[in-house]
# Entry
Amino acid sequence: MPFPPSRDGRRHTPPALMAAALELMESRGGGQGRFDTGMAGVLLVRSFQTIMPVPNVYKPSLCIVLKGAKQIMFGDSSLDYGEMECLIVNVEVPASGRMVGATPDTPYLGMTIEFDTAILRELLQQVPAPPRSAAATPSIFVGQVDEQLAECLTRLVRLMGNPGAIPVLSPALLREIHYWLLTGPYGAEIAKLAAPETHAERVARAIHYVRDHFAEPLRVEQLAEVANMSPSSFHHHFKTMTSMSPVQYQKQLRLVEARRLMLSEAANVSEAAYHVGYESASQFSREYTRSFGIAPKRDVMMFKELLAQATAR
# Structure
């Protein structure tokens, strides 16, 4: 069951979970940024400052706020979630996220666990009544962390401090987390990740194709064929799941990849634009500024300044 609100009307992270997270971060040198968890697909992060929305490609995952608040923007939609709430992402999607109101005195603290479809498929074979949802629903939504999930998260964070035990014990813990999610109030939506030949699985198939060919010209009819759906049905389900059209999705993938090239591989604007499929650097710059609210050169400069300001660990 979800945690009831406290006297101030807000939901708070259980002390044991918060203490485990803080202890781990201090053992990793303290400060802010991403902390080594020793587990693939599991991320722990702390931020002392509010920054501009950071564009990224979100994988299917569970994103939990342990302290503070966060906002995610994707397509024509945005979602806000706070302490002991979680963002559930069921399909790979380009989006921009930002910590809200983070300061050194009131930092943001969050945790992300990527879904493992192999675990979900195995569990679906064992659950007596697998959850079903026939309706087309958004694949990104906000839920609440209940007591069972919080207890599992506490044990998972504590395990991070014992590297020798991680390969032995983490598989069972992650499987337990997947089980509680699959059998909980959001199980029908999470099951779509692993159930074969659902509309969600077919759209995900097309999304993987876009991801692998984002620099090439793509047509909706071509993607519908990959998904084995009619063009009209494909477009409807794609828009419902991702809050954007296939063309918008491809554009966002291109812009996110171009940003990565400029930040990680020191590509200039023209090089990044050409690499992701743009023929005009000026068009790329206009669309980048329109989507991210800042020109590409300025965005790269600001990001490097933020990295320089981050507390060294």
The mean pLDDT is 90. The chain is about 45% helix and 20% strand.
